[in-house]
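A quick aside before the break. I want you to see a complete sequence-to-structure record at least once, exactly as it would be stored in a machine-readable document. Don't worry about memorizing anything.
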Amino acid sequence: MSVTNHDRQVATWLLICCALVFLMVVLGGVTRLTGSGLSMAEWRPIMGAIPPLSNAEWQRVFEIYQQTPEFKLVNSHMDVNDFKGIFWLEYLHRVLGRVIGIAFAVPLVFFAVRGAIKPRQLPWYLFLLALGGAQAVIGKLMVASGQVDAPQVSHFKLTAHLGAAFLVYALMLWTALNLIFRPTGNSYHPRYSWAVALTVLISVTILSGGLVAGLDAGQIYNTFPKMGEGLVPPGLMALEPAWRNPLYNLTTVQFDHRVLAITTLVFTIAVYIGLRRDLPARARPARHALLATAAAQVALGILTLLYAVPTASAAAHQAVALILLTIALYLVHSLRKIPM
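That is the input. The structure line, written in tokens, reads:
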């Protein structure tokens, strides 16, 4: 089956939405890293798109922020001008979320009316829209969790918020790839399952990074490869019962992320070697890009750790994680339904 003009148009739209989600992930990371994520204490889905436009409005919004745990326990030194510095990042983050919703919903209606999206395909696109809405709701719940008793959002909700964004991105990307690259056969490459397993491992490592970020676990053991005096740190299983350690123990959470990251790099090397023969043409550049990006991601992670999570390298680390997942998904897609 050949690719139609409608297919190209819908794929282009989905890839634009992917680019917006990518920007959202990066901006969200910077917002969290700069301590801006709890600055907007009001939740106004409609009117919240309009920022304060007068000194009186700025003062009103600042007074609301002054009632939050973050102001009382962390930022009590701030005046309204200091507050503006953290407000704008969170504001842009929320506005971009609204832009993404509009950028998906409006063309969806247009393509459905024109017949570019068939009625039998519409439920899938509505599911993507609903998933994007759910991701926004998780974000609201995440922010609310940091405005009750302590200025620290739930690390589970933060990881779910990040994971949902990555999932929406991945599903839109996969749908676009299906529209652009039609199957050329009915066979799978012998190393297809390896590529799938690597993609799953990358995803688990990303979610592990969400726990590290949510617990600020990157602020301890800022050495590599050792953690303290050895490769395995003390206190790894300090919490009781034992199952709490991978979820709540900062030492264990960081250790697990290190192990997953190195395992991912080693497995990437194995996949790179295993795919050196009989590759479809479009999979060849992805093979090289996958190894280079995985190595860059580990290097960024080490750099971020050694310098106690500076904003620039930490944001880049999160961005490259999404790039790595993109390449892995593209590689998996290029190894399925090929002629043999």
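Two observations worth writing down. The chain has two domains: 1-182, 184-340. Residues 184-340 form one domain. We'll return to this after the break.
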